[in-house]
Amino acid sequence: MSSRYYIAADGGGTKLLTVLYDEQRRVIRSARTQGTNTLFRPKEAVYREAEELAEELIPSDVKEIAFADFSIVGDSSPYLDAIRRRASVGEVSGRGEGNVALASAGVKYGVAAQAGTGSDAFFIQPGRHSAVGGWGMVLGDEGGGYDIGLRTLRAAIWSEDGRAEKSVLPDLIREAWGIRNLWEMVERVSGNPDMRSLVASVTHITEKAAALGDPAAVSIYEHAGHELAVQVLAAVKNGGGSFVGPVVASGGAWKGSRHMFDTFRREVRAVHPEAEIRFPDFEPLVGSVILRMMDEDRSEDVAAHMAELKETFSAFRYKLPPDFIAECAD
């Protein structure tokens, strides 16, 4: 095995993805665990999962990690400490969420519309970096997975008690959660120590309902697309009104329904008609790998590394259903 190893990690409200790779960019191992942010998850769970992740990620014969690149929302120290108990770690870098999103699309500059469990927009231009959003589940994160999940639960309630038109959402929630009475949601949600992840996971139900053409679910995704467009337009306005590079829609929430992306693209192009709006090539995790390659090569050319990584990191491609891609194509 190679004697020079690297780690890349990308984590947010729902999951942490990590990969151990060598100097030939070969994936040695990968591991994942749940959300990293101790503001929303019990600390003891985060620390326990960090130990389990390190054990899964680092083979016993790997004693030294040359570089570790972390793009983690919240405190990365539980994971770094757990890794260091298994191997020495050389240089550690924190990678910005927007930077890795753009790098995973093969560019250094642009605007990133990040929609995972939370949401924010990153304006990353030569000489200027800024962000809009990312205020958390109570104060913001509009258009992210938690927001979509919460709106879905409320839409189900409104359908059930007659405040809105009938929707398939109540039945889908009863089926998915194994409950008979929708009132059981109250205890399920309010009594959960990891309530944010639970609510965000409801997006799988929203996705199913939207695919069935349920008006409530479609409206929720359209609203999410609108909220992300508002953030991007504010970020661009704050940055002077123009930008170079694409607008990259990154994060898992975008995968739920084409209606989210369609609304987002329409509203952004109403203000910036020439904007290139697209998805990344890879999950954000690979953005950290690309930025590390650029650091080592002292290169500004992100695209030069994409062809190689499409082979070696094929398991981390940003995947959308084929019909979704066709519907969203320019």
Q: In sequence order, what are the helices and strands, one letter per element? A: EEEHEHEHEEEHHHHHHHEHEHHH
| Computed structural class | alpha/beta
Main β-sheet description: 5 strands, mixed
Number of helices: 14
The CA-CA distance between the termini, in Å, is 44 Å
Into which percentage range does the β-strand content fall?
15-25%
Q: How do the strands line up in the largest sheet?
A: 3-2-1-4-5
Low-confidence spans: none
Give the strand tally: 10
Instruction: Indicate the percent of residues in helices.
Output: 40-55%
Query: Which geometry do the CA atoms define?
Result: globular
Round the mean pLDDT to the nearest integer and report it: 89
| Radius of gyration over all CA atoms, rounded | 20 Å
Describe the model.
The protein is of the alpha/beta class and 330 residues long. 45% of the residues lie in helices and 19% in strands. The protein contains 14 helices and ten strands. The chain has helices at 43-57, 77-84, 97-103, 136-139, 145-161, 169-177, 184-190, 195-201, 203-211, 215-238, 258-271, 284-297, 306-312, 322-328, and strands at 5-11, 15-22, 27-34, 64-72, 88-94, 110-115, 119-125, 128-133, 247-250, 277-278. The strands form two sheets. It has a five-stranded mixed sheet with strand order 3-2-1-4-5, sandwiched between helices. A hairpin with a 3-residue loop joins β6 and β7. It is globular and about 65 Å long. It starts with a strand and ends with a helix. The model has no long low-confidence stretch (mean pLDDT 89).
